[in-house]
Design a protein that fits this description.
The chain has about 700 residues and is of the alpha+beta class. Helices cover about 20% and strands about 30% of the residues. The strands form 6 sheets. Strands 6, 7, 8, 9, 11, 12, 14, 15, 19 and 20 form a 10-stranded antiparallel β-sheet that branches. An 8-stranded parallel barrel has the order 21-22-23-26-27-28-29-30, surrounded by 5 helices. The protein is globular. It binds alpha-D-galactopyranose (GLA). Alpha-D-galactopyranose binds next to loops.
């Protein structure tokens, strides 16, 4: 059955995913209108939901503020526009005139609907794109705008898509907020009437908000309930406006740029928005997350099928004090623990002895690496590990040869100060020469030093965002910067197909579907305190899979929080994602090294479940009871549970953990103790994890299905 059909009676387009339907039509005025998004519908059922166009009920209403596929600023519309156009004569308008449609089914199990329109007066084309696939409920949408005239057009707002919810009795918004070292704090809040804006004005995705939403009627939980979720594949400034109207409807619109920025379109120029992806599930927040995770692994990441290596990163151990001998000493210890990828962090290049100098001068520091990085890289390879380095290509310290040679390469506004953050300025990646320079040295670095892995960092937000000398530069830079960043990453990956890349922006400041399409994993947070990480990882996991969630075991007391928790607790938290180690191994005792080696080996036994399995969140990581994350093999053959009690209170109730995702009627064996459990008991009555009393207790339970014959 085709994934996209059109009703001959009503003209309703019906998009079909494995468990959901999405329907829209072009109404009597020519505007693309929403019909339905939710459980599966037949074409006839979708037709029945197509309400005829209704004139405004009185002279104070216009077109409904929720219910169009891309509400414009034009005619009698008063909601937040997804598309706001200003023409050369200063008028702001858009009138939908249908100009054709097509369905592209040339890719197996994937279909794309394109609806084409133009303005009735000015030669401006707008095409709405919808992509659906046979293996995911995620619908991808984007918009292409083209100026066919001979005068400039300004897109004051050019969102990727607007999403409409069915009328519900109430609305609740789930989203994350944060800050440096405290990313992805999950909120589930009643949606206020009016407009709620989630945004980044910082030039990056940001620590402060992340471009995704989940909406429900206030009754969904991890396991049950209808959830509508969206995510934007964009790594620069962005804005999502969620709206709750006086007449009880809700919807949202989202896209690139914050308020006040515009996308100029010169004659003949085209702008393609990033993808906005959306999904519906009736399985609660847990199912929404699992659907996102599967989508990211299958359709966003390029190498998700690979097993991610256990990595070591030197940052918390050596800071800027990096040289060949000390790195080698750490590498030898890391190899003994079973580490598979050794990453030298900041401090290996130029005059980089602190964060005050050297950024931009990407040659190994001669006093610390007299023969370059190659001797260390070779030694790491001889130890059986892959070799990675930290880079921050978008930045420059004013105290650097690069800045002395190219002071005009940074974002700046003539006559105004160049505000430094962390003593650095932002290189204007929107400039082709800057992007080409970065691609040049990165490819040479990777080739000459046999680099297998880059940690690509971005350690400050934009400021004095100007591009002098470029027409419309101050507006164009917001999108072109991101396009060039993507371009450098794409070119680099094409030139070095074996290279793997970690996205980092002072931790989780640039994690989104756009950057994940060009990288392989993400540094989740500079906060490596295992207890804080439980909450950060819970927020991260709402949309992004454990397959990309990089997590290190570091020293205690923690550098940031001064909290000391047991080594096994730190490991168990990091084992819920991509395990890494970031402590100063030269100071670990033989007992600690032995315990760590055992835990690394344990991780290797279960990481296929963490990295490729289905994730279930159990309990509240902020509570004082036991919380857990479970990863189950999709075929029901195995599961691993990582359980934590972060805030012990004497006398708190011992509530068994009800596991999820296990086929009923079969039995599972605990691979460590040999204990056999009925799946039905585990899921319906729960597992008493039996965490020891005392502070910060944790456990890893690996369950394997008992073959039928031995039952
Ligand atoms: C950022 C990263 C850290 C580390 C430092 C190095 O803060 O998030 O992990 O790489 O930069 O300066």
């Amino acid at each position: 059955m085709p994934l996209i059909t059109r009703s001959p009676d009503t003209g309703v387009w019906l998009l079909t995913t494995p468990r959901t339907s999405y329907a829209l039509r072009i109404d009597e005025t020519g505007a693309p209108c929403h019909v339905a998004w939710g459980p599966r519908l037949t074409p006839g059922e979708a037709d029945a939901l197509a309400a005829p166009f209704a004139e405004p009920s009185n002279s104070f209403e216009g077109r409904p503020a929720v219910g169009e596929e891309l509400p414009v600023d034009g005619g009698t519309r008063y909601g937040p526009p997804s598309l706001q156009v200003r023409y050369a004569d200063g008028s702001r308008a858009f009138e939908w005139e249908p100009a054709g449609h097509r369905v592209d089914d040339s890719v197996p199990a994937c279909e794309e609907l394109v609806l084409e329109f133009r303005d009735r007066v000015v030669p401006l084309s707008v095409a709405l794109h919808y992509r659906v696939r046979a293996d995911t409920d995620v619908i991808e949408r984007w918009t292409v705008l083209r100026n066919d005239g001979d005068e400039r057009v300004d897109l004051l707002r050019a969102d990727s898509a607007a999403w409409t919810l069915p009328p519900l009795a109430d609305y609740r918004l789930s989203h994350v907020t944060g800050q440096w070292s405290a990313e992805t704090r999950l909120h589930r809040e009643r949606l206020p009437h009016g407009e709620t804006v989630l945004t980044s004005r910082r030039g990056i995705t940001s620590h402060h908000a992340n471009p995704w939403t989940m909406l429900d009627d206030g009754t969904a939980d991890e396991d049950r309930g209808r959830v509508w979720s969206t995510a934007l594949a964009w790594s620069g400034s962005w804005r999502i406006t969620v709206q709750r109207t006086p007449d009880g409807r809700a919807g949202l619109t989202g896209g690139v740029g914050h308020e006040g920025t515009r996308v100029p379109l010169a004659p003949g120029e085209e702008f393609t928005t990033p993808v906005a992806a959306g999904l519906f599930t009736d399985g609660g927040f847990g199912a929404a997350s699992r659907a996102w995770h599967a989508y990211v692994r299958t359709h966003v990441l390029r190498h998700a099928d690979e097993t991610a290596p256990v990595l070591y990163n030197s940052w918390e151990a050596t800071g800027f004090d990096v040289d060949e001998a000390s790195q080698l000493a750490l590498a030898e210890r890391a190899a003994r623990l079973g580490v598979e990828l050794y990453v030298v962090d900041d401090g290996w290049f130029g005059a980089r002895r602190s964060d005050r100098a050297g950024l931009g001068d990407w040659t190994p520091a001669p006093d610390r690496f007299p023969d370059g990085l190659r001797p260390l890289s070779d030694a790491v390879h001889r130890l059986g590990m892959r070799f990675g380095v930290w880079v921050e290509p978008e930045m420059v310290n004013p105290d650097s040869d690069l800045y002395r040679a190219h002071p005009d390469w940074v974002l700046h506004l003539p006559g105004r100060p160049r505000s430094e953050l962390r003593n650095q300025l932002v290189l204007n990646f929107a400039r082709q020469d800057v992007a080409d320079w970065a691609f040049g040295w990165l490819t040479r670095l990777v080739a000459e030093h046999r680099v297998d892995f880059l940690k690509w960092d971005m350690n400050r937000v934009f400021g004095e965002s100007g591009w002098p000398g470029q027409e419309d530069g101050n507006d164009r830079l917001w999108t072109r910067y991101v396009h060039h960043l993507y371009g450098v990453l794409d070119r680099l990956r094409a030139a070095r197909p074996e290279l793997r890349i970690e996205t980092c922006s002072g931790g989780g400041g640039r994690v989104d579907l756009g950057i994940l399409a060009r990288t392989d994993q993400a540094w989740t947070s500079d906060n490596t305190d295992a207890v804080d990480r439980l909450g950060i990882q819970q927020g991260f996991s709402q949309v992004y899979p454990a397959r990309v969630m990089s997590a290190w075991v570091t020293d205690v007391p923690n550098q940031l929080t001064r909290l000391s928790v047991p080594l096994s607790f730190r490991f168990h938290v990091a084992m819920a994602g991509l395990l890494g180690i970031g402590g100063d191994l030269t100071r670990w005792s033989e007992e600690e090294l032995a315990e760590a080696a055992g835990l690394v080996a344990r991780y290797k036994e279960i990481r296929h479940l963490v990295q490729h399995g289905d994730q279930y969140r159990i309990g509240d990581p902020y509570g004082d009871g036991t919380s857990a994350v479970q990863y189950a093999a999709p075929d029901g053959s195995e599961a691993v549970v990582l359980a934590f009690r972060a805030g012990p209170r004497h006398g708190s109730p011992r509530v068994p953990l009800r596991l999820r995702g296990l086929p009923p009627g079969v039995r599972f064996r605990d691979t460590a103790t040999g204990a056999v459990h009925h799946a039905t008991v585990l899921t319906e009555y729960g597992l008493d994890v039996g965490l020891p009393s005392g502070d910060w207790a944790s456990a890893l339970i690996h369950l394997e299905r008992v073959p039928e014959t031995t039952r």
